[in-house]
Amino acid sequence: MAPAVAASGDRGLKSLVWQKLKTSVFDDCWKEEEWKIILLDDFTTKLLSSCGKMTDLLAEGITVVENVYKNREPVPHMKAIYLITPTVKSVEGLICDFASKSSSKYKAAYVYFTDFCDDKLFNRMKSSCSKAIRRCKEININFLPYESQVFTLDVPNAFYHCYSPSPEKTNDAVLEQMAEQIVTLCATLEENPGVRYKSKPLDNASKLAQLVEKKLENFYKIDERSQIKGKTHSQLLIIDRGFDPVSTVLHELTFQAMAYDLLPIENDTYKYKTDGASGKEREAILEEEDDLWVKIRHKHIANVLEEIPKLMKEVSSKRKATEGKLSLSNLAQLMKKMPYFRKQITKQVVHLNIAEDCMSKFKSNIEKLCKVEQDLALGTDADGQKVKDSMRVLLPVLLNKNHDNYDKIRAILLYIFSTNGTTQENLDKLIQNVQIENDSDMIKNWKYLGVPIVTTSASQQRRPSRKDRSSEETFELSRWCPVIKDIMEDAIENKLDSKEWPYCSQCPAPWNGTGAVSARHKPKANYLEDRKSGSKLIVVVIGGITYSEMRCAYEVSQAFKSCEVVIGSTHIVTPRRLLDDIKALTVTKSKDMVYFKDE
Predict the structure, then answer these.
(1) Fewest beta carbons within 10 Å, which of 36, 43, 132, 391?
(2) Can you give 451-499 as a three-state secondary structure string?
């Protein structure tokens, strides 16, 4: 039986990860008509949930899913698969299950680590329960496929470790862990990319890029199964979060970004009521299994509101056509198709609810904000006229009592970003007048991301140059384009400045920034096409990516059909979540609050 992810069409990274799990784990210990139990830890539970369903596991002979940390009833006649991270906590869970031969919880253990298991941990396991272990392998999947072209490393606390000014914190361990995770992503994609990084203003990207390059080299040297020996025609770009502060705080009006910003969507779950406030509360998961969600998530809210009612009419007319004359055969056909129609209409109702929820927030408060935000972000108004006085544009937002503190802080930040910093006196006045003293670190702490907040001289006020997109058709309140889209396009077109984007290694000629080739090899006239054919551009942002940046990966892939863009980060952020993280940078964290996968 094919997995659900594959059944509904190719889901990119999700399908790749499921296929690798199937081959490396389930096929590896497959035995006809033998049922097994699978033990998971917190990370592998998320991993398996991200790319498969319980029906997929049943098809692979898995009858029970358990948590390796929890106390469980023994099932001594069954074999157990341990799909776990190579951490002390997870390995201790395995050891406890086979503490003695008489009290073993399972008949045997098949152990699969997500990543490299160090010698100390391996020897501890070996000395405690080696007789029970039939298999022990490292499968190299230490990331989560969030969407077909989006991944996360699932280390949100990396933000604090990489950007906090706290003298107690160190980012070496977290960067080391991230590098190992990125290598498992490259291994899953079967790529050995040329590694580049954004050179300024911080050194996190440089450090991480050097670590990734070194670990990639070691991985492909040791991995005997891999056919990859040299660099492939793909690129990996590593960037610090401060490269584009604007896109993190701007109100986006494309469907997915807008919904996650304005609505209380937790763990991709949207709660709604079908029959008004008194109706029963329902839940819907926003996932790629839902083809309608995939179709509309990157569209502007105005287009979504037009499209869903049309689709509802279409399904309704199809159902009427199916009914036709009432004969037994027609009735039988209708009964078969009813679940399909019901499912389609339910999906459409869910997305219509989301769209209407977004619009009610938009109409009440956000619409006025959007015009101000766009003018500040771009430095020009909708007619292309230059904004001469940014403070005059900002003031109506600050004086409006209907805007909450988060929205006012977002507007103030856009004002500061637009002038590449402001004076200390001006900043103090803004904070005092808007009465946001308790949340002022949401503004001030951006300096730790290398973003200018306080400047001493007006002469430093300059706006970074951007690609001219004035000819592109867009909505008046959605004129801003995330910086990452410029970077993706320039990378594919070989236009990135090699001083600003240095390489960590000798790279294949097609990606080396000039297209130069060795004198011994005759250059191909169509090197650009040769390079792009089947190549990938992998973008990693340290400290969170936004939904609008995720959208850019799909848009650029669509425009440059022969080069697929895959984007990922430590975690995914909404404006509100990022501002909370920024504020927390100057809060001293106790050790038990800090999460590492190696604990």
Answers:
(1) 391
(2) CCCECCCHHHCCCCCCCCCCCCCCCHHHCCCCHHHHHHHHHHCCCCCCC
Q: What's the CA gap between 460 and 157, in Å, rounded?
A: 33
Using CA atoms, how far apart are residues 156 and 596, in angstroms rounded to an integer?
10
Do residues 181 and 173 make contact, with C-beta atoms less than 8 angstroms apart?
no
- One DSSP character per residue, 467-480 reads ---TTS---GGG--
Contact criterion met (CB below 8 Å) for 155 and 543: no
Chain-centre distance of CA 111, in angstroms?
28
Q: What is the pTM of this model?
A: 0.88
- Using CA atoms, how far apart are residues 529 and 215, in angstroms rounded to an integer? 29
Q: Are 21 and 139 in contact (CB under 8 A)?
A: yes
Angle between helices 367-378 and 390-399 (to 10 degrees): 160
One-letter amino acid of 201: P
The count of other CB atoms within 10 Å of the CB of residue 509 is 19
Q: What is each CA distance from 119 to 86, 124, 441, 577, in whole angstroms?
A: 11, 8, 43, 38
Distant-in-sequence, close-in-space partners of 380: CB < 8 Å, separation ≥ 6: 386, 387
Sequence-ordered list of residues with C-beta below 8 angstroms from that of 289, at least 6 positions apart, any chain:
4, 5, 8
Q: Tell me how far apart the alpha carbons of residues 459 and 53 are, in angstroms, rounded to a whole number.
A: 58
Query: Residue 508 has what pLDDT?
Result: 54
pLDDT in tens, 76-115: 999 999 999 999 999 999 999 998 777 889 999 999 999 9
Strand partners, 236: 195, 538
In this predicted structure, what is the pLDDT of residue 318? 60
Is there a contact between 77 and 84 (Cβ–Cβ < 8 Å)?
A: no
Between CA 254 and CA 246 the distance in angstroms is 16
pLDDT along the chain (599 residues), means of 10: 39 93 91 88 95 91 93 91 95 90 87 92 90 92 96 95 83 92 94 92 94 92 70 92 96 96 94 74 90 94 89 67 54 59 76 91 91 92 88 92 93 93 93 92 95 74 69 84 96 92 73 40 40 78 97 95 93 97 86 46
Going 399 to 405 to 406 to 409, the CA torsion angle's sign is: positive
